[in-house]
C-alpha cells in the first residue's frame, strides 16, 4: 500500500468567543496556515475534505458556508467532500481519497464555534426523540453517568481525575493556541464548582471557537517535495452501539480502532513503542478510560498540548490532536518531548465516545 504523509498543518488560536470571525474566516485562516507550513499553493491541492455539523453551525448543509474559504473555487475548482463528525474522520476520508489513486494531495479542514450555539440543547438532540430527549439529558449529564460507572469499575478516583486536570492545564499554559492558559492547582481543581456529579467544571472541556487543517500527500509527491513531513503508519476507525446498548465503563470501538491502527503500524507493545500521545479527552476521566483501551495507561507523555481540557472546538478537536502529534514528531511542539519517533493521535465523536479514530504517525527513520 502506498504511504501517506502529513506535509502541512495549521490551526487558529482557540478562544471562548471569536465574534469578529465567521466560520469561513476561521477555515481560511487554518487552511492558509497549513498551505504556508507545507510551502504549497492551493493549486498544488487536488481535493478538499471539510468537517462540519449542521447542529453546531445552526444551518443545513453547513459545509457550503466554508467550501470557497477552503479553496474549492480556486482556479478551475477543486473536488470537495464533507464529513459530518470529528476532524480525524475527515482526515481518514482524505487519506482514502489519496490511496484510491485519484488524487496526490488532500486538504482537510474542520471548524467549530461553540459560542454561537447552546451546547446543552444541541447535545440533547443527540438522544432518541421518543424516550430519552424529554429527560433533558445532554453530553455533560451523559458523561457524568459514564464517569461514575467507570470510576466504580476501574477503581480510579476523582483525585485521579483531578491530577489529569492539573497536568493538562499545566501543559496548556505553555501552548499559544490554547484557550485556557492558566495552570490549575490540585486544590483549585478539587474545589471547582460541581456541575454533574462527579464532574466539576475543571473536569469539563471548555467550548471553543476555532479551526484546524492538515495537508496529506501520497508517498511520491511527499518524497519529491521534501520539506517537513511525518508518515501515517497506521489508522483505525470504529463506531460503537447507541448509548443505551453498550457498557459505558469500556470502549470496544476504541479498542478495535487501536487494534487496527497498531496492526497496520506493526506495533506489538504500544506502551513501549509510542513516544507521545494526543487523546481527545472531552472530560478528565476520559483520558484515563481512553488510555486504558489504547494500552497506554503508563504513558507519561500524554496531551502535552493541554488537550481538549484547554481548548475544545468540537468538530476540530481530533484534527488538533493529529496536528499536535505531528508537531511532536517535527520537534516543534509547545511542550516538546525528547526523541519522539512515533506518536499517536486520537479523535472521538458522539455521546460518551460513540466513535473513535486512532492514528499512528512516524518520522522518516
Q: What keyword list fits this structure?
A:
12 helices, alpha/beta, 35% helix, 365 residues, Peroxisomal Thiolase, Chain A, domain 1
* Beta-strand content estimate: 15-25%
N to C succession of SSEs: EHEHEHEHHHHEEEHEHHEHHEE
**Gap between N and C termini, in Å?**
18 Å
| Strand order across the largest sheet | 3-2-4-7-1-8-11-10-9
Mean pLDDT: 96
Report the principal-axis shape: globular
Number of helices: 12
How many strands, what sense, and barrel or not for the largest sheet? 9 strands, mixed
Protein structure class: alpha/beta
Number of separate strands? 11
CATH architecture title of the domain at 4-117 and 207-225: 3-Layer(aba) Sandwich
| Rg, Cα atoms, Å | 19 Å
Description:
- The protein has 365 residues and is α/β, with parallel strands linked by helices.
- The protein has a domain at 4-117 and 207-225: Peroxisomal Thiolase, Chain A, domain 1 (3-Layer(aba) Sandwich).
- It contains twelve helices and eleven strands.
- Strands 3-2-4-7-1-8-11-10-9 form a nine-stranded mixed beta sheet.
- Helix 2 (54-57) links the parallel strand 2 (47-52) and strand 3.
- The longest helix is centred in the first third of the chain and has 16 residues, at 23-38.
- It is globular.
- The chain starts with a strand and ends with a strand.
- The model has no long low-confidence stretch (mean pLDDT 96).
Amino acid at each position: 500500500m502506498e504511504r501517506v504523509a502529513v506535509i502541512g498543518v495549521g490551526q487558529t488560536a482557540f478562544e471562548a468567543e471569536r465574534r469578529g470571525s465567521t466560520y469561513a474566516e476561521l477555515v481560511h485562516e487554518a487552511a492558509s496556515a497549513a498551505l504556508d507550513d507545507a510551502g504549497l499553493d492551493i493549486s498544488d491541492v487536488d481535493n478538499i475534505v471539510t468537517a462540519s455539523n449542521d447542529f453546531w453551525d445552526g444551518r443545513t448543509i453547513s459545509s457550503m458556508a466554508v467550501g470557497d474559504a477552503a479553496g474549492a473555487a480556486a482556479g478551475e475548482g477543486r473536488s470537495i467532500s464533507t464529513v459530518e463528525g470529528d476532524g480525524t474522520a475527515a482526515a481518514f476520508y482524505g487519506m482514502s481519497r489519496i490511496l484510491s489513486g485519484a488524487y496526490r494531495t488532500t486538504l482537510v479542514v474542520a471548524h467549530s464555534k461553540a459560542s454561537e450555539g447552546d451546547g446543552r440543547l444541541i447535545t440533547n438532540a443527540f438522544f432518541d426523540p421518543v424516550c430519552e430527549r424529554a429527560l433533558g439529558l445532554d453530553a455533560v449529564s451523559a458523561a457524568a453517568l459514564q464517569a461514575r460507572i467507570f470510576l466504580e469499575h476501574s477503581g480510579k478516583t476523582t483525585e485521579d481525575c483531578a491530577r489529569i486536570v492539573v497536568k493538562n492545564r499545566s501543559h496548556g499554559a505553555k501552548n499559544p493556541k490554547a484557550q485556557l492558559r492558566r495552570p490549575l492547582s490540585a486544590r483549585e481543581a478539587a474545589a471547582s464548582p460541581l456541575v454533574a456529579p462527579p464532574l466539576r467544571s475543571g473536569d469539563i472541556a471548555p467550548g471553543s471557537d476555532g479551526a484546524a487543517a492538515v495537508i496529506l500527500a501520497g508517498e511520491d509527491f511527499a518524497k519529491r517535495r521534501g520539506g517537513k513531513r511525518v508518515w501515517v503508519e497506521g489508522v483505525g476507525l470504529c463506531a460503537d452501539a447507541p448509548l443505551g446498548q453498550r457498557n459505558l465503563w469500556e470502549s470496544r470501538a476504541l479498542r478495535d480502532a487501536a487494534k487496527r491502527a497498531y496492526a497496520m503500524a506493526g506495533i506489538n507493545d504500544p506502551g513501549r513503542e509510542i513516544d507521545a500521545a494526543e487523546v481527545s479527552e472531552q472530560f478528565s476521566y476520559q483520558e484515563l478510560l481512553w488510555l486504558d483501551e489504547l494500552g497506554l495507561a503508563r504513558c507519561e507523555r500524554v496531551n502535552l498540548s493541554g488537550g481538549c481540557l484547554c481548548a475544545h472546538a468540537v468538530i476540530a478537536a481530533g484534527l488538533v490532536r493529529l496536528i499536535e502529534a505531528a508537531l511532536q514528531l517535527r520537534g516543534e511542539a509547545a511542550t516538546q518531548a525528547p526523541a519522539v519517533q512515533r506518536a499517536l493521535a486520537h479523535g472521538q465523536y458522539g455521546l460518551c465516545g460513540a466513535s473513535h479514530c486512532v492514528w499512528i504517525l512516524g518520522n522518516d527513520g
